[in-house]
Amino acid sequence: MILSENEKKLIAQEIENLEKLSSAELVAVVTKRSKSYKYASVMISVFFVFCFSFILYFIRETSTLELLQYQLLIFIGINLFFEKFDGFVLKILPESYKHRKASLNANEQFHNLGLNRTKTKQTIMFFVSLDEKYVEIITDEEIAKEIPNEFWQQLVYEFIEDVKKEDFLNGYLKALRTSKAILIKHFPIKNNDENELSNEVIELI
């Protein structure tokens, strides 16, 4: 479980309160990590093996068999280290790389969860990938027509700051509350409004 039951309840309640006043469909999606980064771990290990081999070449004379043994030991050792301390890989990977992976996951989930298939096309997904410290807000067609992307980007910037401070719940609630006025203005609730999507937080494993 990523969030406590109380945290999920507070977020779901905030979404429910907003949807009582707006026809927009808000969906909260959270995952601990967007990718396993196994491939990245292997590539980093290969890099270290290459560096060691290069240094060893200049400091001592080594047979081919001995060099291969050293390389194998280093490769296995580094991979075992990354398996035990997998968070270390995330610390040394470029932020842009991690964010590309998280963004790809966010867009995949928007479609996998069927959020692009509502009747009104008024879905807004608040996606958070905690380990990558990444937040993305994806809007469906009708929302994108009325509300400029700059508004959502400012929300994302503020939300990420809260995630970095490990104040995830506060960041989520602030983002939802900040969205409230503009959504009520552009997408007020209608008499025949149908709640097509659940208000419960979706946790991805």
Task: Provide an overview of this structure.
There is one protein chain. This protein has 205 residues and is α/β, with parallel strands linked by helices. Helix content is 60%, strand content 11%. It has eight helices and four strands, in the order H-E-H-H-H-H-E-E-H-H-H-E. Strands 3-2-1-4 form a four-stranded mixed beta sheet, sandwiched between helices.
How many E strands? Answer: 4
Spatial shape: elongated
Taking strands numbered 1, 2, ... along the chain, how are they ordered across the largest sheet?
3-2-1-4
Overall average pLDDT: 90
The percentage helix is 55-70%
What is the secondary structure topology, with strand pairs?
Elements: H1 5-19, E1 25-31, H2 38-59, H3 64-84, H4 87-92, H5 95-112, E2 123-129, E3 134-139, H6 141-146, H7 149-164, H8 168-186, E4 202-204
Parallel strand pairs: 1-2, 1-4
Antiparallel strand pairs: 2-3
Helix pairs in contact: 1-8, 2-3, 7-8
Summary?
Residues 105-177 form the TPM domain. This protein has 205 residues and is of the alpha/beta class.
Q: Features of this protein?
A:
205 residues; 2 domains; four-stranded mixed β-sheet; 4 strands
